[in-house]
């Protein structure tokens, strides 16, 4: 494996291109796990998954197995899922409720906050063995914070606060929750777990890409546009077909009307591109009219007007989260190796909204974010093709220069693409990448200003 | 299914051999990528369901690997024949075995058939193995067996998976 100097890493990200090795070199991947996934704020789950003390669920943070739990005092804890004795995974069920965690190898038993509670046959350990010593605890992740129910962790003891990390992008989380009449959302509806043979960075790079649907999703666009509406439907496929038709909006529309915004720390969001009067937010949809009625009764007309005027499609929080509030979809990226990635996709329920809206969320997930969907399977194919193509030793550099020099300042301290298909959000992610990899946030922020 | 078809169907019961022949033929249509002929096996009001988790109770409040009503199933099949379906370039080659066929019940002309299947899919130098249980609701319309409902329970429904394009 190649060792990388600061200069190597720094020069691998240039203003409008990045080096191919960033997607293909296992040594770069190892550094990313240490310097990005080992340091950055990462989304690990939602508080609705650990509502009561003793509730827990397992997750992967980078490649590390962890357990997210709520302890006896109600505090959120994220523990390495590793026994302090011989290193075995302690918790084996994906989620559940527990009074304590017990390793089934030698019976070491832990409190919900990870402290060692009891050890059978403890007379056999050395005389200085102390169950109060942190060395005998399951290791806690040093920083766990949640923003309006979204749980993030950082494995770095110090650094930017969660609020500073989110910055203006907190408004995307607000947007999701504000849409719930009861002011609360819950994760529900199961999970898709899809995998591809390519680098983890490609996933977020695709989610705000307004230039690809017209090409990549051509087969589903054509199939949906040619589909007769007269064929029997009980409504299950309605959303799917409308969404696929929307993907076929004219190229000029994608270019000029969608909008792409980026913010510090690698975050970005793509504007909404829907004009289908029944698909998303429209008074022509009776269900949506009902929903607005419920929302207005709780929040008042002015507030509801403000909420519904926020129209965002995918919001990316670098490096591992992407979500959309209009259909309450959320995806978490799990890097497995330099050329293998798993993505978990979840749905949310807006509490207090008509149950049919949640069912529409499920239908939408099946077709847009599903492992067997008519849309996402083409995206996975593209990632796989990139995974193959980049290992060819042809072009040394990956071009991310679309829209470069035409990006414009935004009133919230970000940059937006002059055109919606600008690759400004990919450049923005790589500025964050360079910042993390060099451990120099100030440098990254400076570089971003220069590219404006 | 309309009432006339139901009446006609209710007077005839399907034998296990009839059902097995039907399932073998269905598997062959899929293996030979004759998707339009496969689609024609479904009744106008049929649903096709591949759950995303074992023992999934409902396709309405939990995500599914595939859950199509007739209109979406037509769209899925139309896409499969598109020259621009890049996730099928190159095409998958599949081989299915359907066996352990049992009739679970036969009520009001609807024969519920349970079977086991194994499907091998080969594409771009990778071979994947799928296995699981088929549940078919079969009916007889104008002397032809049709699928009113098909559920595919994969043994690895909840595993991380690469994209699924070819129906099971």
Structure, explained:
- The complex is a heterodimer of chains A (452) and B (168).
- Chain A is an alpha+beta fold.
- Chain A folds into two domains: 42-147, Rieske [2Fe-2S] iron-sulphur domain (Rieske Iron-sulfur Protein), CATH 2.102.10.10; 163-449, Naphthalene 1,2-dioxygenase Alpha Subunit, Chain A, domain 1 (Alpha-Beta Complex).
- In chain A, 32% of the residues lie in helices and 24% in strands.
- In chain A, the strands form five sheets. In chain A, strands 13-19-18-17-16-15-14-22-21 form a nine-stranded antiparallel β-sheet, sandwiched between helices.
- Chain B is α+β, with helices and mostly antiparallel strands and 168 residues long.
- Chain B has a single domain (3-154), classed as Nuclear Transport Factor 2, Chain: A (Roll).
- Helix content of chain B is 24%, strand content 42%.
- In chain B, strands 2-1-6-5-4-3 form a six-stranded mixed β-sheet.
- Chain B is globular, with a radius of gyration of 16 Å.
- In chain B, 41% of the residues are buried.
- The model of chain B has no long low-confidence stretch (mean pLDDT 94).
- At the A-B interface, strand 13, helix 8, helix 9, strand 19 and helix 13 of A face strand 1, strand 2 and helix 4 of B.
- Chain A: InterPro entries: Rieske_2Fe-2S, Rieske_2Fe-2S_sf, Ring_hydroxy_dOase_asu_C_dom, Rng_hydr_dOase-A.
- Chain A: Belongs to the bacterial ring-hydroxylating dioxygenase alpha subunit family.
- Chain A: It holds the Pfam family Ring_hydroxyl_A.
Topology:
The complex is a heterodimer of chains A (452) and B (168).
Chain A: H1 6-12, E1 13-14, E2 17-19, H2 21-24, H3 26-35, E3 42-46, E4 55-61, E5 64-70, E6 76-80, E7 95-97, E8 101-102, E9 109-110, E10 116-118, E11 143-147, E12 150-154, H4 162-166, H5 170-178, E13 185-196, H6 201-207, H7 213-216, H8 218-225, H9 238-246, H10 251-256, E14 260-263, E15 267-271, H11 286-299, H12 301-309, E16 312-317, E17 321-324, E18 329-337, E19 340-350, H13 355-369, H14 376-389, E20 397-399, E21 408-409, E22 415-416, H15 424-438, H16 441-450
Antiparallel strand pairs in A: 1-2, 2-20, 3-12, 4-5, 4-7, 5-6, 8-9, 9-10, 11-12, 13-19, 14-15, 14-22, 15-16, 16-17, 17-18, 18-19, 21-22
Chain B: H1 3-10, H2 16-31, H3 35-39, E1 42-51, E2 64-68, H4 70-80, E3 93-107, E4 110-123, E5 126-141, E6 144-154
Parallel strand pairs in B: 1-6
Antiparallel strand pairs in B: 1-2, 3-4, 4-5, 5-6
